[in-house]
Amino acid sequence: MSDENKIAEVIRQRQTSKVLGDIDQPLLPSGLGKDEIDAWLQTAGNAPFHHQAERLHREKLTSQVPWRMYKLDAKTCRDLLSQLSKSAPEAGKILNMLAACDALILATWTPDQCADDQLMFEGTERNMEHIAAASAAVQNLMLLATNAGYRTYWSSGGILRTPQIFSRFEIPDCEILLGAIFIYPNDVGTSEIKEGKLKDARGAIDDWSRWVG
Ligand SMILES: Cc1cc2nc3c(=O)[nH]c(=O)nc-3n(C[C@H](O)[C@H](O)[C@H](O)COP(=O)(O)O)c2cc1C
Fold first, then answer.
1. Among 21, 23, 42, 91, which is disulfide-ready with 100 (CB 3.0 to 4.6 Å)?
2. Of the residues 139, 140, 154, which should be mutated to test ligand 1's pocket, given the most ligand atoms within 8 Å of the CB?
3. What is the 25 CA–ligand 1 centroid distance (Å)?
4. What are the residues facing 105 on neighbouring strands?
């Protein structure tokens, strides 16, 4: 297969897989190593970006890119599961996902400073482009994981968005969670797997594109 066809095939293969493990009997990790995840991220980080993250975002992680990725291996996910299942049962299905995943990447983006405390972020073109760039990096990551045979799920995060979780993993509160990216093995035993609810809602190419001019 040509590289072009291979890329197209991986893009088509990527689909949401929400794997709901048993919180009392979490899956054994399949052996996905930190090195492999770091190799994916190294490549995913080639995403385009238009503006530098402001200086306040560059204290601990110093890059100018407008995204940050916090990496939880399977053991950290299971530790988080056992803590949250006692302290925060309202976390709901996030607990089942923590019971099944091989890794979880908390992907944040870096909003520009905003004078209004009430706003999550200002609706500026720069912020829009920070989010766009961070999203490109996330999609790259999911494609690389798909290519390696893993299931992926981009979740808004639920409880993973909260200050409790940010503080536990020392994620600066000036960052905003863009997605909690669950990575699961292909073989998840008898765990329930849910597809994305909008999977078949795209319509045809002519429903969302047209030639102009
Ligand atoms: C920014 C973003 C946030 C998402 N958050 C959720 C979520 O919280 N819950 C959920 O069920 N799906 C979530 N999804 C996944 C979508 O439901 C899924 O992509 C969509 O249904 C299309 O299915 P597909 O990914 O299989 O193509 C999210 C996707 C994106 C891009």
1. 21
2. 154
3. 26
4. 71, 181
pTM check: above 0.85: yes
Q: What is the CATH number of domain 17-68+76-103+114-149+157-181?
A: 3.40.109.10
Domain coordinates in residue numbering, the chain? 17-68+76-103+114-149+157-181
Helix (H/G/I), strand (E/B), else coil: 41: helix
Pocket, ligand 1, Cβ cutoff 6 A:
15-16, 154-156, 179, 195-199
Of 121, 36, 26, 141, give the one whose Cα is nearest residue 78: 26
Give the relative orientation of helices 34-44 and 125-147 as an angle to the nearest 10 degrees: 140
User: Where does residue 150 rank: exposed (0-12), middle (13-18), buried (19+ CB within 10 A)?
Assistant: buried
- Identify the residue whose C-alpha is closest to ligand 1 atom 18: 196
pLDDT digits (tens, 9 = 90+) for 153-182: 999 999 999 999 999 999 999 999 999 999
